[in-house]
């Protein structure tokens, strides 16, 4: 919905699915938030913007606003007329929040018995505590904070996705992660970066894999109550039992 510096083709799939299901047609009254204000209008035409892609919904709606101006929009840029809003009304914070991601139980499956919102809060609280406690271990120190570019000036040029436990903890605290798989993705990147910058058989690479194993296992097993003990118990396992670092991320879209 018309966010500065955010390309229009990056949208939440949840929002996309909902907008497609509304199936807006010619003649329908619609409303949209543009530049912080509500706009209302009518769908004058619905047709593909390009004959090359006849099934594409991108810019398929030609809108005649109540102001007399015309525009082209995609279904996810607007919604069916829903109330007393009129063009020029200021969009409130609540209005904007209605278009934000809505947590589902599938996003945080290990905690789904709590309900969607409670599941995210419970998992994030637990994982923030785990990351914070694990960060103080000496063997975890290389992954605790961003790598110093003064000490390792070539690090940024060699690592595609720098990540560390402090950054992950801050992201957890700010609500950055929309689902557990996204948190797992960042955790696994710790081992990816370690292997990219160090010898594959080095101790620091081995340690990074154990960190990943401990945090991912801890996030999935709600009966585990001590991340440090879990980490210590994994440290002497044979390499073939440390597997989470190399698992491909699977997204349930």
UniProtKB/TrEMBL annotation:
Keyword Cell inner membrane attached: no
Positions of the Bromo domain: 135-205
An individual GO BP term: cytoskeleton organization
PROSITE patterns linked: BROMODOMAIN_2
A Gene Ontology term for the protein's cellular component: nucleus
Region: Disordered, residue numbers: 74-99
Domain of life: Eukaryota
Record field: compositional bias (Basic and acidic residues): 86-99
Keywords associated with the record: Bromodomain
InterPro entries xref list: Bromo_WD_repeat (IPR052060), Bromodomain (IPR001487), Bromodomain-like_sf (IPR036427), BRWD/PHIP_AD (IPR057451)
Name this protein carries in UniProt: Bromodomain protein
Species of the source: Necator americanus (Human hookworm)
Classification lineage: Eukaryota, Metazoa, Ecdysozoa, Nematoda, Chromadorea
């Amino acid at each position: 919905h018309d966010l500065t510096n955010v390309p229009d083709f990056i949208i939440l799939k949840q929002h996309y699915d909902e907008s497609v299901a509304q199936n807006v047609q010619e003649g329908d009254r619609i409303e949209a938030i543009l530049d912080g204000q509500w706009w209302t209008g009518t769908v004058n035409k619905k047709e593909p913007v390009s004959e090359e892609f006849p099934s594409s919904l991108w810019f398929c709606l030609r809108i005649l606003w109540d102001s007399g101006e015309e525009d082209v929009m995609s279904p996810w840029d607007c919604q069916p007329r829903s109330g007393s809003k009129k063009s020029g009304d200021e969009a409130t914070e609540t209005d904007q929040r209605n278009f934000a991601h809505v947590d589902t139980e599938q996003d945080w499956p290990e905690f789904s018995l709590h309900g969607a919102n409670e599941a995210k809060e419970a998992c994030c609280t637990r994982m923030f505590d785990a990351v914070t406690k694990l960060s103080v271990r000496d063997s975890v120190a290389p992954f605790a904070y961003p790598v110093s570019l003064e000490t390792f000036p070539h690090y940024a040029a060699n690592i595609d996705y720098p990540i560390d436990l402090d950054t992950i903890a801050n992201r957890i605290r700010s609500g950055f992660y929309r689902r557990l798989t996204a948190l797992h993705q960042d955790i696994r990147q710790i081992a990816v970066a370690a292997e990219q910058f160090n010898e594959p058989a080095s101790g620091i690479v081995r340690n990074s894999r154990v960190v990943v194993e401990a945090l991912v296992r801890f996030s999935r097993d709600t009966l585990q109550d001590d991340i440090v003990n879990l980490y210590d118990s994994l440290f002497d396992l044979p390499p073939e039992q440390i597997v989470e670092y190399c698992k491909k991320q699977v997204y349930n879209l």
